[in-house]
Design a protein that fits this description.
Elements lengths: L1 E4 L5 H5 L8 H7 L2 E6 L2 E12 L2 E9 L8 H12 L5 E7 L3 H9 L3 E6 L7 E7 L5
Parallel strand pairs: 4-5
Antiparallel strand pairs: 1-2, 2-3, 3-4, 5-7, 6-7
Length: 135
């Protein structure tokens, strides 16, 4: 599996399975979107930046349904950690009903650090992982 920074040429393939609102082109242009490829096919993507109170935050993680539970999500999250290795702490979030993501975050040692209610139908759970803490 290859993980690389996304390019404008990837947008059509990403649009085939993108379940999130928004325009991925903006993230591509900012250098904030990474893709997972298997045999040259884009099977997943991750978008992150450091706009969450000046901390790195994964906003979107999505894998094509037919490629789920094969390690693409974990590979993208580990790339996020590698790219942020000089940071003290990193963050992401998911809806309370998103069991696959909750299990992935647990497997990768992310810890719940808060819950936001009433922002959407389901609660949004915020997770963090300490990378270089003094604890």
């Amino acid at each position: 599996m290859e993980i690389r920074l996304s390019t404008k040429e990837d947008l059509t393939a990403i649009d085939e399975f993108d379940i999130f609102l928004g325009n991925r082109m903006t993230e591509i242009e900012r250098g904030e979107l990474w893709v997972a490829l298997e045999e040259g096919k884009i099977i997943g993507f991750m978008s992150f930046n450091d706009q969450f109170y000046a901390h790195p935050f994964v906003h979107f993680l999505n894998v094509r349904k037919e490629y789920r539970r094969r390690g693409a999500g974990a590979a993208l999250m580990m790339k996020f950690e590698e790219l942020c290795k000089d940071k003290e702490r990193i963050f992401t979030s998911t809806e309370s009903y998103n069991l696959p993501m909750l299990l992935l975050l647990d497997k990768l040692d992310y810890k719940c650090c808060g819950v936001v209610d009433k922002i959407q139908k389901e609660s949004e759970i915020i997770f963090c992982k300490d990378l270089n803490s003094e604890d």
